[in-house]
Sequence to fold (253 residues):
Amino acid sequence: MSESSKNQFNTKLIIFIGFAFFTSEIAWALYNARVPKLLELYITDVERGSLVLQLGIIGLLMALDNILGVILQPITGNLSDKTRTKWGRRSPYMIIGIPFAALFFTLISFQTSFLTLFLWMFLFGLAAGLYRAPAVSLMPDFVRPINRSKRNAIINVFGGIGAAIGYAMSLVAGLITLQGAFIVVSVLMIIGLIVLIWKVKERESYSYQMIIEFEQQGKELINDEKLGLIASLKYILQEKDKSTLFICFAIFF
Fold:
């Protein structure tokens, strides 16, 4: 196969991977636009005396998915590195996480009290955190370093379009009802997963093939691949070249 054919194949593959991100970003955009309004209905009733306190509580609850992500994503990312299945090492987490995320996302719109709203928010954040890190790692598994920047741009374009559509759907939710909008997006998430499983054969990725070949030959993987989360952080802090540390700070800020 010629180099141009490989690049064309990879581009199509990244589009299929990007479609899963596209549907996920629609969900998060709709979530960020509509869930604060649902929280406001309950928080306003409880805390009428302080607008600042109301906004603070809503902001904290909206950060719930990020709090869960800080805990879950390093764990599931590390686990996916060690996973070996007929579906690959990233896909199993998406196969489990996306359907549950779609279910809990739909249930958010059917909440009947603050308790049920918080429960569905928590479970949605939990399910989304389960597959986020493996999903982000899927594209680099297929694309060699020389082409990752271009392919990552395709992923981000899909994500940006998805976010725009999600916010647009929040504006028209009044026409199709809030429940209708959430159900439509949940169905799109499942369709994105089906397309991913159908078109993206993770075991054929060059990264997965290389790891399997190394393991069959009894060779050791690169030491960095075998480090746990805490050990990885210590390793980054102890490196003489602080580039990785500075990149982490840049992402944080």
